[in-house]
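Section 3.1: Structural characterization of target chains.
Under the original work plan, the team committed to producing a structural model for every single-chain target entering the pipeline before any wet-lab resources were allocated. The record below documents one such target. The sequence was received from the expression subgroup and is listed exactly as submitted; it comprises 224 residues.
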Amino acid sequence: MLKFFKKMLFRNDYASEAAQSVEITATKIPPIVLPVQDEFLSPTLLNQFKQFEVVTLKKGTILYHGSREKSIFTEFNVNSRSLNGSRKWTTEDKIYAINYAFCDRHTNLGKPLLWKLKLTEDIKCLHGSQFKLIPFSPWSEDAFPSKLPDNYSKYAEELLGEQKSQILLDHFEENMYTEILIANHTNVIEIIDVFELPDNKDKAINFAKNMKKKQLTNYCLHFS
């Protein structure tokens, strides 16, 4: 758990998505402002990315994303279930995703959600440690957690060639990647289910632990 909270302090992507307290209704979705990318690639950072392993994430891989129902990057209502923005942090570990669904304490952002996603095609990815890139990046340490995800697609395309999407894999533990950055995510993911989690975090984690993979595929459980 200490390791998780250290990551939370370093990388504020999920928290920044949730912290923008904007009320969303089924008829009014605020426009999404895409990130401003750097004009040029950093040769120093690019050289570090060249040290990363090239891995293929296979079509059909199941991924999870944790959020709040009223985040401006989440469109969740009876008419639409979509993840907005230019990129998303996901994970193969549903417990890890649930931790992020509870990372923000603004009650007006609504219920915590667990999104179950599926990769729709094979994607070549870079696998390596984000933290080790910090000394070689063109950004300050404070700016790094948002600048890296916003600019990652350009570096990956330079090294891997053009793809519908670019993926960064990090923290391979217990035979799965706990942090998966997907740039241009809407091109390569299918939303299978969205689970409305109970407001109590322990209950939400127990729910995920007790659900079998087949059950997660066949229906979506809603809590009142």
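The first helix runs from residue 2 to 10.
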